[in-house]
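Saturday, quiet lab. Running sequence design on the structure tokens for the scaffold JK sent over.
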């Protein structure tokens, strides 16, 4: 599959010297097939003092920007998994990361996963470093290692090339497993007060070593929570093992696609363009911050915005944003946020970064991939020991699904973007001795300038489906009697 000029001549592939010098111009046309995505991008390049030339950039083999690589990983994961959570609800995310562990591109999966996954990859780089070998696959879910909450198991595969000492890229998939042990079925206990009560813990676990899936070792780890009083090992072991194998398979597909891309264009070219993707996102965020600062200065004379919200127990989440109009940068200071709580609404640092990168991407007026470049213009200050930067053994299962939404509401409120959402992913969890079920049933999305709020939708940090009643009743020993909107629960706004 290819493209060319209007005259039918073939276009040459041209490596841009710098994304800062040559910005994307004119048009970007995507032609999707099952296996191939072709990008045609017109790039203006000076050629002499008075002349210009147009070079058409033709990028084949599953997206030069690597977006389709992540999408293919997601398709493999959905097809090969067996759990309702991953196959039906699509509670998973796949992404590609650079050699430094920074997020390059992802499929449009779960926002709360995507910003946090790069923290997990970078943690493994620091922890394992030179010990990583081809054929290794790492499993992790610990909050201090970039995890969101324990049921979200992240599988990371380093991509190697002959003659290169370390990994040239990483691919990773994060999936929510309906049960990994703990004090209640579904591994989402409402009353947990320590991490060990929430299920099996993996920090830097070698799920695959030398190409061999470590089933015996991972089974022992999944059953380990039973050693703690009142806790059980996983109640869905076969689902866990099958879905972990599916995640490994999805990563393998991602590794193959990245390898094919490198075979076609060379490692230097591919890594350069992945850097350009991140740089383009950085520039887009800087432009947004400059424009917001300009409007803010004209309206108020100040370049600082603040916002505050409270958890149900009164714990404050406070944010002060100081913007540099010239640089297009900002400092997000969460100083004054309440302390770590004796409960499970503590949100690991990676969750706050996920919320921030999501909000920045939403406020950018361009269609750019969500990646590490979005965070380059900002600094984040999180007080240690707070609900947004808890201790390593603090309970966090609710922080991922509730506190994350409140953080998003606070950030969007500071910038005056829209009204708050329902402030929670609205989780339902139940089960028995040999099974566990978990669901997010959605809620409301806030109104904004020119649009009404929406009812019964997954908003912000969640982006899953709701399990079909037929699937629920077929896979679990339950009968659904009623599922409906709660009238009037959203409250009145300006127009109602």
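Result came back. Writing it out in full:
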């Amino acid at each position: 599959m290819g493209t060319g000029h209007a005259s039918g001549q073939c276009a040459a592939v041209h490596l841009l010297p710098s994304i800062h010098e040559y910005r994307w111009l004119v048009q970007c046309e995507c032609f999707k097939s099952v296996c191939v995505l072709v990008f045609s991008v017109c790039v203006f390049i000076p050629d002499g003092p008075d002349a210009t030339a147009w070079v058409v950039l033709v990028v084949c083999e599953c997206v030069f920007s690597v977006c389709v690589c992540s999408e293919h990983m997601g398709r493999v994961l959905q097809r090969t998994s067996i759990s309702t959570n991953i196959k039906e609800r699509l509670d998973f995310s796949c992404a590609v990361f650079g050699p430094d562990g920074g997020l390059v591109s992802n499929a449009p999966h779960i926002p709360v996963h995507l910003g946090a996954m790069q923290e997990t990859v970078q943690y493994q780089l620091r922890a394992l470093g030179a010990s990583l070998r081809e054929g290794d696959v790492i499993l992790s879910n610990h909050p201090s290692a970039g995890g969101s909450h324990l049921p979200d198991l992240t599988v990371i595969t380093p991509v190697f090339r002959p003659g290169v000492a370390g990994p040239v890229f990483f691919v990773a998939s994060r999936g929510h497993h309906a049960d990994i042990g703990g004090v209640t079925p579904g591994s989402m206990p409402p009353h947990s007060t320590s991490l060990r009560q929430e299920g099996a813990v993996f920090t830097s676990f070698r799920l695959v070593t030398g190409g061999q899936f470590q089933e015996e070792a991972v089974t022992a780890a999944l059953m380990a929570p039973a050693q703690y009083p009142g806790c059980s090992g996983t109640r869905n072991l076969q689902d866990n093992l099958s879905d972990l194998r599916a995640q490994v398979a999805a990563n393998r597909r991602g590794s193959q696609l990245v390898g094919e891309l490198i075979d076609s264009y060379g490692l230097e070219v591919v890594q350069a363009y992945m850097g350009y993707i991140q740089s383009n996102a950085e520039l887009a965020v800087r432009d947004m911050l400059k424009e917001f600062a300009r409007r803010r200065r004209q309206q108020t004379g100040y370049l600082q915005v603040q916002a505050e919200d409270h958890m149900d127990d009164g714990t404050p989440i406070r944010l002060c944003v100081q913007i540099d109009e010239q640089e297009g940068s900002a400092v997000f200071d969460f100083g004054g946020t309440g302390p770590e709580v004796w409960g499970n609404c503590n949100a690991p640092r990676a969750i706050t970064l996920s919320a921030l990168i999501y909000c920045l991407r939403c406020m950018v007026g361009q269609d750019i991939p969500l990646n590490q470049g979005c965070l380059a213009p900002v600094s984040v200050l999180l007080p240690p020991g707070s609900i947004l930067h808890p201790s390593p053994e603090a309970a966090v299962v609710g922080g991922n699904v509730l506190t994350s939404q409140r953080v998003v509401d606070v950030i969007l409120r500071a910038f005056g973007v829209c009204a708050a959402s329902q402030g929670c992913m609205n989780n339902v969890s139940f089960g028995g001795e040999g099974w566990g079920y978990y669901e997010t049933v959605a809620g409301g999305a806030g109104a904004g300038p020119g649009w009404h709020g929406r009812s019964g939708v997954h908003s912000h940090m969640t982006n899953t489906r709701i399990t079909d009643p037929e699937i629920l009743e077929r896979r679990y020993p339950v009968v659904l009697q009623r599922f409906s909107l709660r009238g009037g629960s959203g409250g009145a706004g300006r127009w109602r």
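Notes for JK: Residues 1-65 have pLDDT under 50 and may be disordered. The first helix runs from residue 67 to 80. Ask whether to fix the surface positions before the next round.
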